[in-house]
Please model this.
Amino acid sequence: EEELEHFREAMGVMQHHDAVTGTEKQLVASDYSRLLYENIFNNEKMAAKSLYHWANKINNSNDDFQMHSCLELNISACAYTEDNANFVVTVYNPLSRPISSYIRLPVRGNSYNVWDTKENLEIISQIIPIHDRVQQIPGRKSKATKELLFRAIDLPALGYKRYTISAKPDTEETFI
Amino acid sequence: EPTNSIEGDLYTITVDESGQIVFQNKHDKEVVFVQSFHYYESAEGNNKVFENRSSGAYIFRPRTSSTFNLPYEGKYSVIKGPHVEEIHQTFNQWISQVVRVYKEDNRMEFEWLIGPIPVDDKIGKEIVTKYSSYLISGDEFYTDSNGREMLKRKRNYRPTWNLKLHEPISGNYYPVTTKISLKDKIKPMKFSIFTDRSQGGTSMKNGELELMLHRRLLKDDAFGVEEALNEMAYNTGLVVRGTHCIYLSNTNNLDSFSIKEKEIPLNLALRPSIFITIPSKTNIDHWRNA
Model:
């Protein structure tokens, strides 16, 4: 509750009319960014706890079960997906009805296996270069030059699906 | 093979020589629209009297009533694959976009990247994109300004008083929460643009929709913020990246059309959350079985 309360407070501050319309002073805008970042980052653990609770699994402190959010996907950057050859993606659907959605993840490899753990089958993925201009955005410190795209089919309402992703052997050396 | 086009089941999208994106329906050659980027130069004054008020955080006030065209470098590449086809277009040093068509989705996506807007010439600039279609919409268009239902807008008109606009551009701009659309007055056609954030929008010409993408201004408008809308990061102006989803279709099957129109903004606003776990053991099979 305490962790969640900080997040609620930040969301409360964002209801101010200047925050909604962008008529705040620059220093205030920067403070809003700080508030949002800190609280979203701190709530990673809580999101992980919830997902493991639903999966009837224990959320232990083992690194194997740490979940991370990628807060820089808006500039096609994510340290976790671009620096690792193997990773697991949990996709949560916040809508109250099932949907299918395309998932884009910044990567460095040329080819990946994407495995739907619920259906237990490999699904088709596509590698797309990230636009040159995106790679040149001031302040973007990412090694990702491509995005891995796949379609998450039939994400359950207010539920999740999990995908295991591994770079194909011929590209694994990229990550060494 | 060199190509300048991508296609979905129902349509083809092409880049022409001037950098405009041209959409054409495969079955109905009259269903065409063209997308392009333009900018307004912002008004600057001493804010002492109404006529001298500057464009700022609170008000949009272009210096002239027409947009300026942008120089086009003419660079693009085309990517095709099993899920998506994309045109990566570089308009100039500070405007680029990706136009994409997903194979299993009957909509187009324009992912624009604007900034840092150059202001070395000491002129504030406000960047817009225009989607020009052959729809006969007259002077009417629709916006979801209150975030609920679609409200009918009429150019140079207010429903409760006789209007005489001195500033025809800003006087016709309306808030767009997620959607702006046009209806053809003769054919059962509708043209909608869905935004991933609130923007300003208008229809200044028959069949045309216009949305404001990014602004970099050098003067305060004296309405309270006391700063020019000149956001900086890394010692330069901000770069913004966002998406417009386009849905242009006939409304013969109104049920499926309405369902689709309600699905798109929800999917844009409430996207799936993504969490990454890195297995400490390299044995990914362990995860598959878990």
User: Anything to note?
Assistant: Residues 111 and 243 of chain B are 4 Å apart (CA to CA).
